[in-house]
Amino acid sequence: MDLTDLEQLFTYVASLRRRFLAKFRDLGWEEVDKNREATYSSMHDIFIHLLEVEDSYLHHDIPGKPWEDIDPASFKAFEDMERYDREVAEKAQAFFRDLSSEDLGKEIEIEGWIRKATVEQVLLHTFLDEIAHVGELIALMWQMDEEPPWTSIVRSWTTRPPRQ
User: Fold this and answer.
1) Torsion of Cα atoms, 15 then 2 then 126 then 109, to 10°
2) What is the pLDDT of residue 122?
3) Cα 54 from chain centroid?
4) What gap in Å lies between CA 89 and CA 17, rounded to an integer?
5) Beta strands in the chain (DSSP E)
6) Chain segment 24-72, per-residue pLDDT in tens
7) Is residue 162 part of a domain?
8) 28 occurs within a structural domain
9) 86: Cβ–Cβ under 8 A, 6 or more apart, which residues?
10) S-S: 65 plus which of 60, 69, 149, 150, CB 3.0-4.6 Å?
11) What is the pLDDT of residue 159?
């Protein structure tokens, strides 16, 4: 995978996040912040984790800077979530502007990982982690009988599967 492909993946995920933020506003804060017993309790918490994944890997782990976990409870309104989303997207644009193709092969160590990984591997891991949580948000919306703002680029998969 080349640098342009990777950058496009992150640009795409940023566009998905904006769609989910708009849907969150439609649902209302109470629904978005409700504990749904998911990986990070609420859709609010999952979304903040999604942002934190990208923020921590791209802007702290890859460049070797310290990171402190973010408390999702510190985001008390949609405006707070939207502001953090914009910050992460802008930082990602700057990150990719400064990244070279040669940087993709550089090996780095990340605390908690069992081995060194290349920058390219970390970027792919980050993207896949974010997409997995987008899938979780989709499933939670289906459980609420809400149509998610995105489910697939494949037209035949754009509606919720029938309930059994």
Assistant:
1) -150
2) 97
3) 6
4) 10
5) 107-108, 117-118
6) 999 999 999 999 999 999 999 999 999 999 999 999 999 999 989 899 9
7) no
8) yes
9) none
10) 60
11) 56
The Cα 78–Cα 86 span in angstroms is: 12
Burial of 108 (0-12, 13-18, 19+ CB in 10 A): middle
- What pLDDT score was predicted for residue 157? 47
- Residue 80, helix vs strand vs coil: helix
Query: What does the alpha-carbon distance between residue 82 and residue 84 come to, in Å, rounded to a whole number?
Result: 5
Beta strands in 101-154 (DSSP E): 107-108, 117-118
- Domain hosting 39: range is 3-157
State the total domains in the chain.
1
What is the distance between the alpha carbons of residues 89 and 51, in angstroms, rounded to a whole number? 9
In the numeric block, which tokens belong to residue 58? 């791209």
pLDDT one-digit tens code per residue, 107-131: 999 988 999 999 999 999 999 999 9
CA angle 106/108/112 to nearest 5° reads: 155
Q: What is the CATH number of the domain that holds 89?
A: 1.20.120.450
Q: Please check whether residue 164 lies inside any domain of the structure.
A: no
- Percent of the chain residues past pLDDT 70, beyond the cut: 91
Quickly tell me which residue has 């890859």 as its tokens: 62
How many other β-carbons are positioned within 10 Å of the β-carbon of residue 134?
21
